[in-house]
Design brief:
Length: about 375
């Protein structure tokens, strides 16, 4: 690993920094210096200086950095919901030691109350692939607006027709603008970032460009992507962002909230396919959930939803793989449950209803996860 040596004033402080080029969110989230910078901003000027400069020169890494920040915040806020796996314990211990977080005091709970709390919170972390399910997290980020200087010419397109219209942007990204909606965008995107402003509703098919993140402004909310497809609805009561493909981060605009701007933090969530977030303007609250009608992410062979005396664990895994959703259930309680059914050409909600009816269970959607409640099945 290439090491970069940097010296800073105030004594003779000298630190060694790794070459973080190409780091994933998981790798950032398990790096000691990154953890210190996220968990204790301002206490280490050397780290603040390094990361500020590094981010400025590596804009393509911003999505990974944002996700890593959310991961660390999730772990620190709810460590009690981590699965009991050795690797995850080691990672949490590393974060706790690095950030000097005290060990949580043990609390006696019953197995049922532990499961119920775990399911209700749905703060699930699988290996080092961290799925952040809380409806909001906080992290530090400098917000930007569409730059109008430096020769940037802004165009405004308003759809005053009764049908959707298609707009091709300078980078070949496609926007489908719904009736009564308005989009403001530069005639030519500047170097380093692509920014548009939306009032109303539009579907975006963003051209992938790692060096230029794509930002959609909707008053209090900023949606940030590299390359993906998603829908944004910006109306008086709320802002709704739903993802079709790829990964999207949705952030509160710090300039729209003085208290957030003063503290240097903004709230945000990360969305993956079939997930959405709704920002209620009156309550100033973000809520993450599944989209109303989740779609299969990739073509699935017909027989993959034909089950004959199949364990529900296998059935749930097939659904998870097809829809990209997390299904939470007690594997021990449902270990003896099997299913014989044809679930082809059936919506996700109907699939879940049929499965639950067959095994005498119920399901609920909490945040963006599906939680199955059941008492188990008799031995086959």
């Amino acid at each position: 690993m290439l090491l970069v040596y940097k010296s800073f004033e105030k004594g003779t402080i000298s630190i060694k920094m790794k070459d973080y080029e190409g780091f994933t969110a998981d790798e950032f989230a398990s790096d000691d210096d990154f953890i210190r910078w996220v968990t204790a901003p301002g206490t280490r000027p050397d780290l603040d200086k390094f990361w500020k400069e590094w981010i400025a020169t590596h804009p393509a890494q911003m999505d990974e950095i944002e996700e890593a920040r959310l991961m660390i915040q999730a772990v620190m806020e709810e460590p009690q919901f981590l699965p009991a796996q050795d690797l995850q314990d080691k990672v949490w211990q590393r974060i706790r030691q690095t950030a000097q977080v005290p060990e949580p005091a043990p609390q006696p709970v019953s197995l049922w109350s532990h499961w119920y709390s775990k399911a209700a919170a749905v703060a699930i972390i699988l290996g080092l692939g961290w799925w952040v399910s809380h409806q909001s997290r906080t992290f530090h980020m400098t917000n930007v607006k569409i730059a109008q200087g430096d020769g940037v010419v802004l165009k405004t397109k308003e759809n005053d027709t009764s049908l959707p219209i298609t707009i091709e942007l300078d980078d070949q990204s496609i926007v489908v603008l719904q009736p009564g909606s308005q989009l403001q965008y530069p005639e030519h995107f500047k170097k380093g970032v692509r920014e548009v402003d939306l009032v109303g509703e539009a579907f975006f098919e963003v051209k992938k460009d790692p060096d230029r993140p794509f930002l959609v402004y909707t008053d209090e909310i900023v949606t940030r992507v590299l390359g993906t497809s998603f829908t944004v609805r910006n109306y008086p009561a709320d802002v709704r962002v739903s993802v079709k493909t790829g990964k999207v981060s949705v952030l509160k605009d710090s300039n729209a909230n003085e208290s957030q701007e003063a503290s240097g933090t903004v709230e945000g969530v990360i969305l993956t396919p079939n997930q959405q977030v709704v920002y209620a303007r009156q309550e100033k609250k973000m809520t993450k959930s599944l989209v109303e009608d989740p779609n299969v992410l990739t073509p699935v062979a017909k027989q993959e939803f034909e089950f004959t005396d199949t364990s529900v664990a296998t059935v749930f895994q097939a659904i998870k793989d097809a829809y990209g959703v997390e299904i939470v259930y007690d594997e021990q309680v449902l270990a003896n449950c099997h299913l014989t059914a044809s679930l082809t050409d059936v919506s996700l909600h109907d699939k879940l209803s049929l499965i639950c009816k067959a095994i005498n269970a119920t399901y609920a959607i909490i945040d963006s996860h599906i939680v199955i409640y059941g008492k188990g099945c008799a031995n086959p």
